[in-house]
Design brief:
By secondary structure, the protein is α/β, with parallel strands linked by helices. The protein has two domains: 2-89 and 323-340, no CATH class; 99-313, von Willebrand factor, type A domain (Rossmann fold). 43% of the residues lie in helices and 22% in strands. It contains eleven helices and twelve strands. The protein has helices at 2-15, 20-48, 53-60, 65-86, 124-138, 163-172, 185-193, 219-228, 274-282, 298-305, 325-340, and strands spanning 90-102, 104-110, 143-149, 153-160, 204-210, 231-238, 244-245, 247-249, 255-258, 268-269, 287-290, 310-322. It has a six-stranded mixed β-sheet with strand order 4-3-2-5-6-11, sandwiched between helices. A two-stranded antiparallel sheet has the order 1-12. The longest helix is centred in the N-terminal third of the chain and has 29 residues, at 20-48. The protein is elongated and about 120 Å long.
Length: 350
Amino acid sequence: MGNLFQRISESINSGFGDPFYLYLIPFVVALLVLLYRWSENRGRRILSGFAATPVLNRLTDSVDPKRKRLKAGLYIGAVAFTLVALAGPRLGERTIELKAEGVDVVFLLDTSRSMSAEDVAPSRFERAKLEIQKLLERLEGNRVALVVFAGRARVQCPLTLDYGAFSMFLSSVQVGSVEVGGTALPSAIEKASNLFAVDERKYKTLVVLSDGESHSGDLDAAAKEAAEQGVVIHVLGIGTGKGAPLPVRSEEGGLLEYRKDRDGSVIVSRLNLTGLSRIADLTSGKIVPITGERGEITPVWTAISEMATKELQSRTYTIYNERFQYPLLLAILFLIIADCLPTRARRAAQ
């Protein structure tokens, strides 16, 4: 008996989108029947208070009780079939396979103190994040990741197709997020390259966003190793050749002072494209200076869009053939018949 109920339950669950409404039907029908009987009895009690039994019988003898019950049954049936429609009956199914194809793009974001300079509005760092968001809008369908670096590198967001999660990680990054000072771009390139599959040479690209100042380590060696792995590195150089001092601000955002060196002179940070251009050249990437109010990222986007794509994700979905319209049609038909059905019988000719 237990196996029988289990098989029935499985059949209902597979044949309906939301079986909960089916389980409601007996309770709703029973409740409506009880309400109908209670309403009938209450009506009779109320009428009996206004007239004697013989007079009452003469007033109500034209009402056909069978038609009245049939009309109530039609209304109750309409409610039952409406619940069946809400349960989402299904008949037949088909499967479809959806594939996501694209490339893997890792953003390398410089979080060193020099990125706080404001020669590019609102600041180099905030402008770099805006450029990432602009590229992100065009990259839909590709996997993206975020590596932040200063004196060392850290994976902030691994490769993902979830752009909402990526944007959340990006918004949480600030200048100084990486505690160690300096600008260790070579180690960031190595850490970012490790996010890619080793056997896939045609689908890997890095986008570096930095002002190019004070890079430690051997950039050429890191770029050559990345090129050997099939990684293309594009560079967005953030800042201007004229440069700007590095502001020190309060928690409220007010300017306190400008950073100074050991001699007490104000430090002026300038965009340095020398090393950045070198890594782009060694990996056949693009170098795009972002120096004004409007930076043109199209060359980088175009290069990424022209890369060979690979299958990033494949999912199989089952599509059911919904048949809710049939019980819904019956419910409407029952309502129409009930509304058109008279409850008074024709008097016989005297």
